[in-house]
Structure formats: C-alpha cells, structure tokens
Design goal:
eight-stranded mixed beta sheet, two-stranded antiparallel ribbon, 11 helices
Length: 369
C-alpha cells in the first residue's frame, strides 16, 4: 500500500506545483556532505545577526510584516497527507523562498524515515532525496499595512531531538517577530466519507491576537501519545504565542494519499479564521474526483458498503443523543466499538484507487491494512 500515493496522483491528476524539498544537487548529497555543509554554516556563528542553532542551515534571516507561522509535518500527524498537502498548496500560491533547513543527520533515523530514490533524466544518475524539514518565507502580495507574511515549516516529522528542534522553531519565531502560530494536522477517525468533513478548531492564548479574539473554539480532551505538531503547539503556547490548531478528520478506511477532500477543508477553515487568500478551485476539483472514486469503490464491495452504513448509523446516533464530541487535536487510531473490522475494505479501496477495479480473484475478506 505504500505506493498508493503515486498511483493516486496519476489517476486523479493531482500533481500540485509545490516547492521541491531540495534541488537535484542537494538531493544527491550524502548525509556526511550535508553535515559538513551544516558545520560550515554553524562555523559562521551568526547569519544576519542571528546566532545559528546547532543542526540548522540558514541562508538568510528575513524581515517580515506581522508574520504568521504555519507548520505541518508528514507522518503520524498527517492522515492522508492532508495537512502537509494543505501547507504545500499554501506555499505554492505565493512567492516563496527557502531560508533554512535542518541537517537530516541530526534529526532523522534513516532506517525509520528512509531516503527515497527516483530515476533522473536520461543520461543522469538516479536521484536520492533525504528526509527534510524546510523553512519557507512567503511574502504577502498585499503592500498595505494589513499585509501578513508567512513563515512556513514543512517536512517529515523528526525522529530525534524533538526538544532541540522545538527550540529552533521558537528561536526563529522570536527572531522574525511571529505574531500568530497555526498548527495543521490530520487524524484518522470513524467518521464516514459520506458526511461533511470535520475540522477541529482549538486555540491557546486566543486573547492575544485580534484574528482569534472572540472566535469560538473547542477545548481538546485528548489524552495519549502526541506528535511534533502537539509538542510545538505546547512549546509555543508556553511562550505566550497565540496558537491556532486545525485538525482534519479523515475516514480511517480511506488510506490513499494525498486526500484532497480533507486538505481543502483544512485550508477553507484556515481562510475562514485568518482571512488568508487561497485559491481552492483546483483542489476542490481534485476533492470532487477523489470523492467520486471512493464512492464507486465502496459501491462495488458489499462488505464495504455495509461497513459505511454502520458508520453512518453510529454518526447519526451520536449527533442525536449528545452534542458533537470534538475528538481533539490528536488520535492514536480509530475506535470501532462493535463495528466489524475495516481492514478488508481498506484493501479493496486501495486496490480500486490503484487499478480502477478490484483485481481478478480478489476476496474482500483477505485484505490486510
């Protein structure tokens, strides 16, 4: 199932113009070469008057106007790659400049977050892309006093040294004068794909920013494992930054990535709260095609269709009997209760999204998540 993303992209024409994590030269650097580059950066001690933290490579320190920090990370915090897709779409629609990136040797275990390889153009060697976390500046095209520039952090969730990484983000936020923090994530839940996409909204220190003041937010009651998205939100909140957290809820049985249906809903909520200008037309079209394909996949499998009907009954019952229960900003996985296992349906939908139909001789009961 790990290759479903590529198959999904081709089938749904969902290739977005997003900034590459590295150019062809950087992608082929060995980790030790990257480390040496980081050492050279650190040996300068300061960049534009800022002492560079260990493990970070900095090209420049920008001067920003009323900046908003937006971040998302691929991995455990990113069901259906919805949050990271939303951030990359946001970056792609503005002029952007990569100002900093982490040394992968410092923050990743390559047996856990592996480098990827892809063919190069004819006559060139294959390209290796190392895990990355990058910092982009996206200036607001508005030249008025209301302009708000973006500082965007996006990449793979680090495997190591979360405390040091959080210190780097907090230090850079302080340096460029961040006024508002927006954390984006997505989680798997038991919500069926046939109901409107739900996005949880919570905020810390909301009274400290005019965009959040007076808005209605829910309080998260989540207890359990957390990811780097939650760690950063907590660390920045402790530093008195106003932090807005938006979490999209993805049906746990639809694991094809990226999931534009969730991504566009996250972005729409971001626009609603912050007033940022984002063109959602192409992403809306991709979401509609995605929804049609999932609907067709489910209709072809009786067990899948019955499972979705069970989820719909559970959803309607919870809506009738009590106020909507916000699941929180994180989740360790679905809680099916008495519902039948969705593993067979996950496999059936994955096969359909990959090949357009159930493979000959397949059996709905034999799939594995």
């Amino acid at each position: 199932m790990s290759d479903s993303g590529d198959a999904f992209d081709e089938r749904f024409n969902f290739r977005l113009e997003i900034p590459a994590t590295s150019d062809d030269v950087a992608a082929n650097e060995l980790p030790e070469q990257t480390a040496r580059a980081g050492a050279r950066t650190r040996s300068r001690r300061t960049v534009d008057g800022w002492r560079v933290p260990e493990g970070l490579n900095v090209a420049r320190v920008p001067v920003l106007r009323r900046p908003i920090l937006v971040y998302a990370f691929e991995g455990w915090n990113d069901a259906g790659e919805a949050a990271s897709t939303a951030v990359r779409v946001l970056v792609s629609q503005r002029e952007h400049d990569r100002i900093a990136w982490v040394d992968p040797e410092e923050f990743f275990v390559f047996t856990e977050t592996r480098p990827t390889v892809r063919p190069a153009r004819k006559g060139q060697r294959r390209l290796i892309t190392w895990p990355a976390i990058e910092f982009f500046v996206c200036p607001d095209p508005d030249q008025s006093e209301d302009a708000r520039d973006l500082l965007v952090v996006v990449g793979s969730e680090p495997d190591l040294r979360w405390g040091r990484f959080a210190d780097i983000v907090v230090d850079l936020a302080r340096r460029v004068g961040v006024e508002l923090v927006v954390a984006l994530g997505s989680l798997n839940t038991d919500i069926p794909h046939t109901v409107p996409v739900h996005v949880s909204r919570s905020a810390t220190n909301a009274d400290r920013h005019d965009l959040l003041r007076g808005q209605r937010f829910t309080r998260s009651n989540y207890r359990g494992p957390t990811g780097i998205v939650g760690i950063l939100a907590s660390r920045l909140g402790d530093r008195r930054y106003p932090v807005l957290s938006l979490w999209g809820h993805a049906p746990h049985y639809v694991s094809a990535s990226p999931n534009p249906q969730i991504a566009v809903r996250i972005l729409r909520e971001l626009v609603k709260v912050t007033g940022l200008q984002v063109d959602l037309e192409s992403l809306d079209a991709s979401a509609a095609r995605f929804t049609d394909q999932v609907r067709e996949a489910v209709s072809r499998d009786p067990e899948a269709a019955e499972y979705v009907r069970d989820l719909e009954r559970q959803y309607r019952s919870s809506r009738r009997d009590e106020e909507e229960d916000d699941i929180g900003d994180e989740d360790s996985g679905p809680t099916d209760g008495d519902l039948p296992s969705g593993a067979a349906m996950v496999d059936a939908i994955e096969q359909f999204l990959r090949f357009g139909q159930r493979p000959p001789g397949s059996n709905a009961s034999s799939g594995e998540e």
